[in-house]
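Give me structure tokens for this 89-residue protein.
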Amino acid sequence: MAMKEFPRVIQCGGVTAGAFSLSLMRPLPNGWYYSMSVQKVTDMRGICYEGRGLSPEEDYLIDNTSEDFAAGYDRQLEAAINLALKASR
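Here you go.
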């Protein structure tokens, strides 16, 4: 989230999980557990992405498919490597 504030940073890949704050985990009598966020984390504009995650700009939104995983291929990693190589030129 902090890196997105820099003008030359590109977020690519998928939407993040949206878990930014620390959480408090407690057991329930039936053996299950619950967790609760214990912070409100926002960006510089006060926007909270907890639960919904950060999404890359549409041009950089890349999802891996189950076929990619089965083949041992990571589209998101390949895109990040290509962007890094392009930026280093």
